[in-house]
Amino acid sequence: AEQNRELKERIAQLKKERNAIILAHYYQRDEIQEIADFRGDSFLLAQKAAQTDADVIVFCGVHFMGESAKILAPNKKVIIPDERAGCPMADMVNVEGLRALKRQHPNAKVVAYINTSADIKAETDICCTSANAVKVVNSVDSDEIIWVPDKNLGDYVSKFTNKKMIIWEGYCNTHDMLTVKDVEEMRAAHPNAQFVVHPECRPEVVKLGDFVGSTTAIIKYCKESDCQEFIVGTEDGTGYQLRKDSPEKKFHFATKYLVCPNMKVNNLKKVARCLETMQPEIYVPEDVADKARLSLERMLLVK
Ligand code: 13P
Ligand code: SF4
């Protein structure tokens, strides 16, 4: 605790010296969320990156999030605590594969989940996050959509659109591990609890949800609901905000495996170190960034 206090003071001082802001995803460790200027889901953090006046953005999340921030704010320095914090789902789609699909479906528009590399975004018509996926798909001016990379979110979205969706076979290791059996066992143990679930989970698990939504939507729902007890079907870092908003309510994570190891690679020591050394810095080649920016900016404009 003493070490954490010293680190937090050091970070606060460096932040001032560098004119930096710290953005933290809801899946980050509690101690990182505590020191963040903004906590949020992928959508909110992309918006904050696009709007900030700071000179430096410290992005505490995974690599594609830092990259999206850099693309949206090309004149800022974007640094991350650890270069190795990647997203396995983002790595499940590659440019060659996507280009081949585009050739097979020349009339389709590409919608990419923000959980993708800059190279994929550069091949994309419009990005989305779990918070706006249905709205984005329905906003696209084509009856045919190539959807990358999350098959589970793709399946969920396909239920709210008449468009034909060609869905890539990627998935989030962490959310995809949750099974119907896990949820049934938790329901038996906590019969008064509602089950809230992220659409990155498998379709048969999502179907069991009393509420389905992005990280921010789940947090908002639990805060505003009259229900006092929840079984949570998303990453365990969301517990920080859920408990902060409603200390009197009970939150049971649906299994102990709902932990994204990549998100947990970051810690306070690494945040302090990156502010000291200004490394590792996110770099996106200009031609890629210019194309990728269009797909992100289109997303930010969808109402
Ligand atoms: P959201 O932030 O959109 O809820 O997405 C969850 C996620 O897995 C981020 O990596
Ligand atoms: Fe990727 Fe899943 Fe981790 Fe999010 S929770 S960063 S989608 S692996």
Structure description:
The chain is α/β, with parallel strands linked by helices and 303 residues long. The protein has 3 domains: 2-87 and 263-283, NadA-like (Rossmann fold); 90-170 and 288-301, NadA-like (Rossmann fold, 3-Layer(aba) Sandwich), CATH 3.40.50; 174-253, Rossmann fold. Helices cover 44% and strands 16% of the residues. It has helices spanning 2-18, 30-35, 42-51, 63-72, 95-104, 118-121, 133-139, 151-158, 173-176, 180-189, 203-206, 215-224, 239-245, 268-277, 286-301; strands spanning 20-25, 38-40, 56-60, 77-79, 109-113, 126-128, 144-148, 164-167, 194-197, 211-212, 229-233, 250-253. It has a 4-stranded parallel sheet, sandwiched between helices. The protein has a 4-stranded parallel sheet with strand order 6-5-7-8, sandwiched between helices. Strand 1 (20-25), helix 2 and strand 2 (38-40) form a beta-alpha-beta unit. The protein is globular, with a radius of gyration of 19 Å. The protein starts with a helix and ends with a helix. 47% of the residues are buried. The model has no long low-confidence stretch (mean pLDDT 97). The structure holds 1,3-dihydroxyacetonephosphate and iron/sulfur cluster. 1,3-dihydroxyacetonephosphate binds at residues 41-42, 87, 115, 129-131, 172, 200, 214-215.
Please describe the topology of this protein:
Elements (H helix, E strand, L loop, with lengths): L1 H17 L1 E6 L4 H6 L2 E3 L1 H10 L4 E5 L2 H10 L4 E3 L15 H10 L4 E5 L4 H4 L4 E3 L4 H7 L4 E5 L2 H8 L5 E4 L5 H4 L3 H10 L4 E4 L5 H4 L4 E2 L2 H10 L4 E5 L5 H7 L4 E4 L14 H10 L8 H16 L2
Parallel strand pairs: 1-2, 1-3, 3-4, 5-6, 5-7, 7-8, 9-10, 9-11, 11-12
Helix pairs in contact: 1-14, 3-4, 4-15
The structure holds 1,3-dihydroxyacetonephosphate and iron/sulfur cluster (SF4).
